[in-house]
């Protein structure tokens, strides 16, 4: 890594620890190894571009979950990002193929250009704009009152009101602006060549100078469905819809995402497909609060996932992107579980299940967590149980033991009730740290 890039990362880490900033998304932090200064990425993944154009790709550490190397990690991240709303237009097959030979940022740019290609092939959508002018030829409808005022002694002019067909509409201005951004950001000759070709197609369309205003004016009329994907990418490019915006004093095209959010969206999408027909999966429910004060509800209880059967709440679930080691249940390790997560799930159980039923912590399945841990009981509750379950990133399924009271909510093969996986493998964090 060039020294200038390291210095910038170090400055960013110091900036993010500034108390006056509150508690921002700290995607990088200072560290020290063997007496030498260093920087460490936290649980964010994606692409960072330094002010000098140097790109840093941060991929999830999934070796213990799916095996493989950089290509496999990129492919998995692409699959997971498709579960996030802004990235639902990722074409998985083509993105995976690109991921084998180009950096992640170039994959995103190539996907945007591919979506613009669909627009260009069907032709830019235009519309009619109303114009008024004092013309040398009669065009449209003559505005008699204005014509007499302007041209009483000029018989060679006609003040008219007319419609003119033009491609200058918000959708095209936004795509043109996004093309200009990726043209300057891409280091791929293929992407640059394609972006230049498309910029030539949009040459008569002005670049959007206020994207936020133009996005508010977007109207995908009949015959404009091909614009949906391209505009979704344009919003990401122009509004920097990544959780990290304005990184430092420059606005390089950096896209970074918290793995907790990505993993939650991935589990939610695929768990919904695993449910039996009579059950429904809800995300980010906010029905109950922890306390009530002077008639107001304080501290909303917001579990990641809630499984319901009709009006009955069956299971409360929370996702955690962290390595759990089933072989380290004794002593102070406690499998690597966080006490705070247990407090959180206990509160969810009291609020949503009236202190009786099942709450679940979902972790990525690895070779150190192949099966569910033994159930955890809350002795002071009416019968609240907590389960620690693995979610397989490869098969996209949640592992639920046969003896779990809520095993009926899932369709397909049930897993054996075995709860421990004997291994001497050492612990290794699977997130970006």
Describe what this molecule looks like in 3D.
- The protein has 433 residues and is α+β, with helices and mostly antiparallel strands.
- It folds into three domains: 43-123 and 169-259, no CATH class; 127-166, no CATH class; 275-409, Trna Endonuclease, Chain: A, domain 1 (3-Layer(aba) Sandwich), CATH 3.40.1350.
- Helix content is 33%, strand content 22%.
- The protein has twelve helices and 17 strands.
- The strands form five sheets. Strands 9, 12, 13, 14, 15, 16 and 17 form a seven-stranded mixed β-sheet that branches. A three-stranded antiparallel β-sheet has the order 4-3-8.
- Helix 7 (170-185) packs across helix 10 (227-239).
- It is elongated and about 100 Å long.
- Mean pLDDT is 80; it is low at 241-253 and 413-433.
Q: pLDDT average, as an integer?
A: 80
Q: What class, by secondary structure content?
A: alpha+beta
DSSP strand tally? 17
Count of DSSP-assigned helices: 12
Distance between the termini: 18 Å
Number of domains: 3
Shape: elongated
Tell me about the largest β-sheet: 7 strands, mixed
- Helical amount among residues, as a percent range? 25-40%
């Amino acid at each position: 890594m060039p020294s200038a890039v390291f210095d910038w990362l170090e400055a960013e880490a110091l900036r993010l620890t500034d108390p006056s900033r509150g508690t921002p998304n700290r995607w990088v932090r200072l560290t020290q190894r063997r007496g030498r200064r260093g920087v460490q990425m936290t649980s964010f993944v994606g692409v960072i571009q330094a002010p000098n154009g140097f790109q840093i790709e941060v991929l999830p550490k999934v070796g213990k979950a799916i095996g493989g190397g950089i290509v496999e990690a990129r492919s998995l991240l692409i699959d997971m990002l498709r579960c996030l709303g802004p990235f639902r237009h990722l074409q998985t097959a083509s993105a995976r193929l690109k991921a084998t030979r180009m950096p992640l940022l170039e994959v995103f740019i190539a996907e945007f250009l591919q979506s613009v290609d669909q627009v260009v092939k069907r032709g830019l959508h235009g519309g009619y704009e109303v114009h008024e002018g004092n013309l040398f030829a009669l065009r449209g409808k003559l505005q008699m009152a204005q014509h007499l005022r302007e041209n009483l002694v000029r018989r060679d002019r006609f003040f008219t009101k007319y419609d003119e067909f033009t491609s200058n509409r918000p959708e095209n201005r936004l795509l043109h602006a996004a093309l200009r951004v990726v043209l300057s950001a891409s280091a791929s000759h293929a992407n640059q060549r394609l972006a230049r070709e498309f910029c030539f197609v949009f040459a008569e369309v002005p670049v959007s100078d206020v994207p936020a205003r133009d996005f508010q004016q977007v109207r995908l009329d009949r015959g404009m469905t091909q614009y949906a994907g391209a505009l979704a990418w344009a919003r990401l490019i122009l509004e920097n819809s990544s959780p990290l915006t304005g990184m430092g004093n420059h606005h390089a095209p950096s896209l970074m995402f918290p793995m907790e959010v990505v993993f939650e969206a991935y589990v939610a999408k695929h768990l919904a497909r695993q449910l039996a027909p009579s059950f429904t999966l809800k995300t980010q429910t906010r029905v109950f609060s922890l306390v009530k004060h002077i008639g107001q509800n304080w501290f909303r209880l917001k579990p990641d996932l809630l499984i319901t059967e009709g009006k009955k709440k069956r299971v409360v679930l929370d996702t955690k992107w962290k390595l759990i080691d089933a072989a380290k249940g004794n002593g102070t390790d406690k499998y690597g579980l966080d006490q705070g997560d247990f407090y959180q799930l206990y509160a969810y159980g009291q609020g949503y299940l009236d202190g009786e039923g099942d709450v679940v912590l979902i972790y990525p399945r690895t070779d150190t967590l192949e099966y569910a841990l033994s159930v955890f009981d809350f002795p002071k509750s009416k019968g609240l149980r907590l389960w620690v379950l693995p979610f397989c990133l490869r098969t996209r399924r949640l592992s639920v033991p046969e003896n779990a009271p809520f095993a009926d909510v899932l369709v397909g093969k049930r897993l054996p009730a075995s709860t421990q996986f004997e291994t001497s493998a050492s612990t290794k964090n699977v997130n970006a740290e």
